[in-house]
From TrEMBL:
<dbReference type="GO" id="GO:0006508">
    <property type="term" value="P:proteolysis"/>
</dbReference>
<feature type="binding site">
    <location>
        <position position="558"/>
    </location>
    <ligand>
        <name>Zn(2+)</name>
    </ligand>
</feature>
<keyword id="KW-0482">Metalloprotease</keyword>
<keyword id="KW-0862">Zinc</keyword>
<dbReference type="GO" id="GO:0005576">
    <property type="term" value="C:extracellular region"/>
</dbReference>
<dbReference type="InterPro" id="IPR027268">
    <property type="entry name" value="Peptidase_M4/M1_CTD_sf"/>
</dbReference>
<keyword id="KW-0732">Signal</keyword>
<feature type="binding site">
    <location>
        <position position="532"/>
    </location>
    <ligand>
        <name>Zn(2+)</name>
    </ligand>
</feature>
<keyword id="KW-0865">Zymogen</keyword>
<dbReference type="GO" id="GO:0008270">
    <property type="term" value="F:zinc ion binding"/>
</dbReference>
<dbReference type="Pfam" id="PF07504">
    <property type="entry name" value="FTP"/>
</dbReference>
<feature type="active site">
    <location>
        <position position="529"/>
    </location>
</feature>
<dbReference type="InterPro" id="IPR050371">
    <property type="entry name" value="Fungal_virulence_M36"/>
</dbReference>
<dbReference type="GO" id="GO:0004222">
    <property type="term" value="F:metalloendopeptidase activity"/>
</dbReference>
<protein>
    <recommendedName>
        <fullName>Extracellular metalloproteinase</fullName>
        <ecNumber>3.4.24.-</ecNumber>
    </recommendedName>
</protein>
<keyword id="KW-0964">Secreted</keyword>
<keyword id="KW-0645">Protease</keyword>
Amino acid sequence: MNRILGTPVESCESRKIRRLATVKHEVKLESTKSVLMKTQEGSPSDAAKSVWHSRRIEFWRAWHTYRMQSGWRYSICAHSTSTHSRSQIELPFTMRTAQLAVISGLVLTPLAHPFLASNSAASEHHSIQARQLSNAVDQWRPQQRSTYVAESGDISVQRTSGDTAGDYVQAATAFVRSIHPDAEFRQINDNYVSSNGIGHVYFKQTVNGIDIDDSDFNVNVRADGTIFSYGDSFHTGPTPAAAPAPAEVLEPQPALEIVVDVLALPIDPAEAQIVEETGKSFVVEGLSNVESPPNGQLVYYRSADGSLVSAWRVETDVGDHWLTSYIAAENENNVLAVTDYVADAETYQVFEWPLNDPRGNERTSEVLPRDIRSSPLGWHQDADQQYFETRGNNAIAQPNEDGDAIFIDEPRPQSSELVFEAPFSESWEPAEYINASTIQLFYTSNKFRDILYVLGFDEEAGNFQTSNFGNGGSGSDSVILNTQDGSGLNNANFATPPDGQQGRMRMYVFNQSTPHRDSSFEAGIVIHEYTHGLTNRMTGGPANSRCLAVLESGGMGEGWSDFYATAIRVSASDTRDADYPVGDYAFNRPSGIRAYVYSTDMQTNPYTYSALNSLTRVHQFGTVWCTMLYEMLWNLIDEYGNTAALEPTLGDDGVPTDGRYLAMKIVLDALALQPCNPTFIQARSAIIDADAALTGGRNQCLIWSAFAKRGLGEDARRSGTTYVDGFVVPDGVC
């Protein structure tokens, strides 16, 4: 494990905490939770957990709104002896009543209890409809049925004719027939060849001339006509012998009424005028509150048990929701599935990237902050599943107050609309804003991960993803993000196993201030820890996580982590006179937790290579290494400039266009070049080589000058355990 501090973790049995009544483990919440979590076997059910989490979040949001509006506050002192023994806290009547009501599922009107700002009847009705719609979509979400085979070598289908545009389509069609020789299917006319030379062809399965709407096959074909990969969700079970007789099919009008009733749509079916009816399709005109006329198509669809049933696919576009509903065509009481074309934008109430911490800053709602190049499915979906909590292909974030290794059942912030919001105040104790902490940690980690992906830490390089989408490397290793981890104080760490096993980040509470501070709200600490995953995976190869094990290489591991944390923090308005500490927010110390702040001023930070002679710990070695990299960073920024861009922009040659991201890219590329357990000199040489490979060596003078200034020039040497400064830049470089 790697720690951001070099000091032992301090533990304490009890402490006086100034807090509001909004504490996660209130007695009444705990007792209600135990009731909700009970099943016949006495173990928690997923449904019970969902109810508990949603009601808990709903209550705390309502209570926070009331508290902010009323200005009501009080302080208590609680002596906690264990997670099972809590101080009995007498809550004010208003709060206590609200708590019990929300937990029990009651609706409290604003007139009775002023928790929420009063709404007009229209807006209240709209919000109720929105909740019903959201619940319906969740309830009837389609099942996951597809499989994906990456770079299959089992079957190779060569081109059958000349070098024409249709060849890869023919190859794909032949391949589908080889996998499903008895299936009926049709080609969907949206095939294309992408910029990487891979052709993409799509097929829909049919039975009796009718589409099976949830049965698809996509084939990806190499330029030579062989199959690169494919996805398959074709139905392989029994199929109906004939299409349903018209007399057996539900009429369009009742089908529409079912959709309107189930989804509580703002549509009056009595206004419906069914037109263009063919027995297999229909269009509805004359309706108000729709963006376009609803329409229906007769299809087959798989029921919950996997059997094929005939169904009306009814599309209703009501603005905020463009819904596709599947209604059993021969059973008017059976809703098969509901989907929504309108995907709610992923939104996070956070301190915006790259703000380092809360001081002097305000949280904002960041919409769709992911980089599409790095996270094409967003942050809440992998190849198999969509998540509506702080979980996705790259990371899974949750509080871990008891500090144990069992994280999967911990409560996470949830949102069916992927809008993650939670109250936060610097005047509160960390336990009072634990959901906000989880959201912030999830956001910061994903932002940094996306940047690293663009710079080269991708699947083949050993990054952390559940699904690798056929891009090489070993998947099933998204990062476990534990916030307010109870296993320690005043620290943070990251465990990096080989590629294919999940990394784990533990973020602790710091008790160096009153109230205490949460390290998940200091972006620099989060970035520092995540970078340990980067450097351990890339040095020596993804399968070997033991290549930063000795003092010198382990020290550079700490230095690389500080470097990325600092480089991200550098703003477009900064000059090389800017100095940066590490850990200054969490530790409540302006100078941070290192011996010196990072600076290009030799008076402010005098470290050179020979300083290693008097240092004995990895974090001390790391400060020397990062000081050298900080010099290089500013040489490149002075040459190429810096921007406020939140993600790297790469030129046609793959080189970042500004100096800050260029420095980050060169350092990252060098990790893959250097040997296992490198020395300072070897790591410097790898950086020189990385620039040569990336840019043809056009930055050799800038890089050599940075290292030489800090004693790691061409003539620097290590003699036994003695480090000797060298300030020479090689001849001809500058």
